[in-house]
Amino acid sequence: WQGPGVGSLTAFGTSGFASSLAVWGDLLWVGAYGDDENGMDSGAVYLYDWDGVRWTFRQKLVPKDSTAGQLFGSGMVAFDGGLFVTAPGDDEHGDGAGAVYYFEWDGSQWSQRQKLSAGDAAAGGRFGSSVAASESAVIIGATGARGAGDAQTGTAYAFRRVDDHWGDEQKLIASDGAGGGRFGAAVAIHGSAAILGAPGDGDYGDASGSAYLFRWDARRWWQRQKLSATDGDVDDQFGFTVGMSQHAALVGAIEADGRYEDDAGAVYVYGIPPYDCDGNGRPDECDIADGSLGDCDGNVIPDRCEPDCNGTGVADICEILDGTSDDCNGNRVADECELDCNHNHVPDDCDLANGSSRDCDGSGIPDDCERGCNHNHQPDVCDLADGTSQDCNESSVPDECEGGCNWNRQPDSCDIADGTSHDCNANAIPDECDYDCNVNGWADECDIAEGRSRDCYGAVGNCRDAHATPGCNDPAIETCVCDADPSCCTTLWNQDCVSLVSELSCVGCPEGHAPNGRPDECECFTPPYVVPGFANGLTQFGSSPCSGYIDPRGKSSNGVDLNMGITSVTLRFSEPVYSPGGRPVVVQDFSVTQTGGDPPPDVMAVEALSLTQYRLRLNRPIAPKEWTTVIAHVENACGIPIFGSGDGDRLDIGFLPGDVNQSGSVDMQDVNAFRQLAGLPTASLCGGRQHYMDTNRDGVVRVPQDLIRLRQLLAGTPPATRAWQGQSMNHSRP
Predict the structure, then answer these.
(1) What is the DSSP string of 317-336?
(2) What is the pLDDT of residue 4?
(3) Radius of gyration (Cα) for the chain, nearest Å?
(4) Which of 46, 193, 399, 641 sits 20 to 30 Å CA-CA off 358?
(5) Which of 43, 27, 32 has the alpha carbon at shortest distance from 10?
(6) DSSP string, 515-579
(7) Which residues, other chains included, contact 154 with Cβ-Cβ below 8 Å and sequence gap of 6+?
(8) What is the distance between the alpha carbons of residues 551 and 677, in angstroms, rounded to a whole number?
(9) Are 630 and 734 in contact (CB under 8 A)?
(10) CB distance 26 to 78 below 8 Å
(11) Are strands 650-655 and 549-551 parallel, antiparallel or unpaired?
(12) Does residue 559 register a pLDDT over 80?
């Protein structure tokens, strides 16, 4: 090369000029990463054209988004019709994340067509640390990017040309990369092989360096071999520069010891053995050259070694080239082997590219394959973005897919927040979905807390029994007692604590019962009732007398009036009963009615024989020839009132002296009945022998004394003042 001005090219007002160079034919590009046209170190590239005599300046290239610190022009590579320029200082994805710009000739000038960056770009990645390209592939180094284990090992990114676009990104990492290795500091491509330098690698000491060989297999790049200098040493930086030809790989080590001087630098040359993919003992290129093996796409890889995804025995690329298979996205893979989620025989990415399918969320998957939780053939995120679905709780899930316990197509939390549902116990569960054993629309816990339900039936109470642990299991009683004597809740529940329950009139569950957190109406399912009376020999069971009993006995205190009859009644219940509200049974829990219109006797006293049996004392005997009814107004521990149908809550008692056979009238048949009963060990189911045969009411069944008394009643002889024969009850049983 010679001639005026040929040996020196400069640019006015710039720095870093000639930081990189690229040549293609008669074109020369000169990088100037220190150019300040768009801010300090924004960078630029100067284009020169050789006219046969000299280099003539033609154009200055800067990115469309040129900014200070981009260092545009740090590296370049050119090929027929294309130019890549690195800008490792670009900060679009973070400070120093880096970028690479692609330029093409448009017929009049070189214009920016595309900006490339790493799919996982991050600050400090230095994408664009190096670049190498062919007409179909470009590999870009990123010495600050993170590789395996998230260490800052350095990585590289390979892109393929698809139609007029560079895409199909693949991230390349060193298989044994370590932090600080600076993998990707240099890169070179030749055919289907590439080499990448890692001058910071430390196999032979810090920064001794290494390089990695990769091979393209028609679908992706694979690491084939790691290279390092056999005489490597600390700081040699083997891999600082790299180069490649068909049969050789060259690696520069700028600080390696030379033959004549230490740290002088060196170049290592490695022979690349010819590939023999089919293992026939001959290099692939020889098989191809003599026609033994085909190479339909001219990539020096025998067709038989190329992928055959559809199993036809013909390489995919050959079927694509001869039109047997389509390759709509230009990725050298037959369309029938591509992902086709909607089964329309067109690869998904082509559906998206030609508009056949939408991709509202930019996921690379057609919407009709991301049906979403509501199966409307659109991703959930798009339903939310376009208002098709609501997301009241900002969970990123459409409301209709969260549903909620009440199936109203809205999450429970939103039902509660907007007042559609109540949450009385603040447990984030709508009351209608919470435990609601009585099905009243309120949580059981709230029914109890707000007084709609009682809670006393589920557990055995221990507040009225001394025990060696503090407190008792009825909170209301426990609070009442412990407010007066805290030791009852801190030390033990002794007899003094039990005494305080009565002394303080502590109100809680009835004796023997305690809360269990469940409404009583859900523990009890049947109301209490009066147990009918019956007798077995001399033993009386159940209530006494039984309902419907007519007392045949009579006695006079004055020799004139039969005024010494029934004055007490014993009621037995099917289960423990209480006054309404769970209090102990009292006189007011009973009432008395009488046929005939005269005032009935009153209940004068109640004696609790047990929680299920009570003796009622009347203020006078029941009236002769009338029916007297004793009615109970009690409830069980669950608060369920006594059964009020039939005889469930009452006893009907009559008084007709001499009516031994309970017929409702007095006649000679009653004498016969007396004689029959006297000879039997048992009496009627309604009472024992003394109920029917102790007619003189002396407490002892004696014959003939009681028979004589019966005859006196019938005849009207003293001490009876009038005959009872032929007498009947004034009214039918109520």
Answers:
(1) HHHHHTTSS--TT-SSS-GG
(2) 45
(3) 54
(4) 399
(5) 32
(6) --SS-HHHH--S---BPPPEEETTEEESSBS-TTEEE-----SSSSS------EEEEEBSS--BB
(7) 129, 141, 142, 143, 144, 145, 147, 174, 177, 181, 182, 183, 184, 185, 198, 200
(8) 15
(9) no
(10) no
(11) parallel
(12) no
CA dist., res. 31 & res. 35, Å (int): 9
d(CA 287, CA 674): 133
Q: What is the mean pLDDT of residues 265-286?
A: 82
The better pLDDT of the pair 601, 673 is held by 601
Per residue in 500-545, pLDDT (tens digit) is 999 999 988 888 888 888 888 787 778 999 998 876 655 667 888 8
Distance from C-alpha of 253 to C-alpha of 432, rounded to nearest angstrom = 77
Q: 82-125 pLDDT, tens per residue?
A: 999 999 999 999 999 999 999 999 888 999 999 999 988 999 99
Structure tokens at 132: 């190498």
Cα separations (Å) of 209 from 173, 175, 201, 264?
A: 15, 15, 4, 16
Q: For residue 210, give the nearest of 267, 262, 173, 251 by alpha carbon.
A: 251
Phi, psi (5° rounding) for residue 521? -65, -15
Structure tokens at 92: 């679009």
Q: Tell me the pLDDT tens digit for each residue of 658-670.
A: 888 889 998 888 8
Q: pLDDT, tens digit, for every residue of 365-399?
A: 887 887 777 777 788 788 778 888 787 888 888 87
Q: What is the 3-state secondary structure (H, E, C) of 51-73?
A: CCCCEEEEEEECCCCCCCCCCEC
Per the listing, tokens 């679905």 go with 389
DSSP E strands: which ranges in 228-319?
238-244, 248-253, 266-271
Residues 6+ apart with CB under 8 A from 687: 533, 535, 540, 544, 545, 546, 549
Torsion sign (Cα): 470, 476, 481, 487? positive
What pLDDT does 48 receive?
Answer: 94
Q: Measure the CA angle with vertex 395, ends 392 and 398; round to 5°.
A: 65
Which residues neighbour 654 within 8 Å (Cβ) at sequence distance 6 or greater? Answer: 549, 550, 551, 622, 625, 626, 627, 628, 664, 729, 733
Task: Give the integer Cα–Cα distance in Å for 264 and 50.
Answer: 35
The residue assigned the tokens 């590789």 is: 147
In angstroms, the Cα distances linking 174 to 152, 213, 227, 658 are 12, 10, 12, 119
Dist CA 194 CA 134 (whole Å) = 11
Q: What is the pLDDT of residues 627-657, one digit of tens each?
A: 999 999 999 877 889 988 778 899 999 999 8
Compute the Cα dihedral for 635, 636, 641, 644 and give only its sign: negative
